Amino acid sequence: MITEAPTATQVVGLDGAPQAPARIPGSLSLVLPAHNEAENIEIVVQKALKTLPAFTDEFEVIVVNDGSRDETGDIINRLAAEDGRVRAVHHPRNRGYGAALTSGFDASTGDFVMFMDADRQFDIADLALLSPFVGRFDIVAGFRKERQDEFHRKLFAETFNLAVRVLFGVHMRDIDSAFKVFRGDMLRSLDLSAPGALINTEMQAKLRRQGASLVQIGVNHYPRVAGSATGGSFRVIARAMNETIKLWWQMRSYQPPVSSPQPRGPYRLGDLIVGSGIGMALGAIYGIVKRRK
After folding, report:
1. Which segment of 74-88, 121-135, 237-251 scores lowest on mean pLDDT?
2. SS3 letters for 258-287?
3. Domains and CATH numbers, the chain
4. Which site from 159, 184, 191, 226 is most exposed, i.e. has the minimal number of CB atoms within 10 Å?
5. pLDDT (tens digit per residue) in 244-288
6. C-alpha dihedral (270, 271, 274, 279), degrees to nearest 10
7. What is the pTM of this model?
8. Can you tell me the distance from the alpha carbon of 213 to that of 186, in angstroms, rounded to the nearest whole number?
């Protein structure tokens, strides 16, 4: 059964009267990664098709079916056949959240690229909160004002946000929030490799090195009403931790493109902290071995 998503925050003037949202200064590509979202995907796409004309005259909705085992792929194909503004991208097998986003970014053509999860925990109408800043900043990042998730997911998110600040120098309130708008040419210049949840960290770490400008805006987050979440499973968390160490190592040799606005060098504080941690661990091991002799 198709039902409407919760009503988003309205844009109001000083007199309290509703106002039209700020227009985006160019075309927009909306990327929706979807894995087993048959209960949600049509609602999300139809809402986007109704809402986005208020922000721009030229847009596309790119839905990436990441190896779904339910009817997600068939629904996406039907929506694309019914409306030329919808584009379907299919992964024959599940390749992960990061790979789904990367495929969507590669397929995008917009001056600006937005991505949003397809589970109805965000409302596309809340783009009105971000649109006044699109074109003024390279990254307009929404952070969840009140995250509607289980406690262990919130705890891991806060711990991970701290680790990202320490290792990569990326200071974001909500690194993994799936409600962000990027300058399209800058996003497509990135060579992204993270297959899973670390994709947000990889994007922000590389864009920081390029000197991208960033603004963060609070957005609404709604409870999941259909389908099941997988991003907070312990298997996914363990994989993200492993990928984090690999990304830190890769970023030590990363070279920003020559076209970067303000290229930056590696984040040396992260190197110092990791080096100190390794040194302390080796010292502890040496002490244990020495006592056993």
Report:
1. 237-251
2. CCCCCCCCCCHHHHHHHHHHHHHHHHHHHH
3. 28-289 (3.90.550.10)
4. 191
5. 888 888 888 888 887 888 888 777 665 566 656 555 555 555 456
6. -150
7. 0.81
8. 11
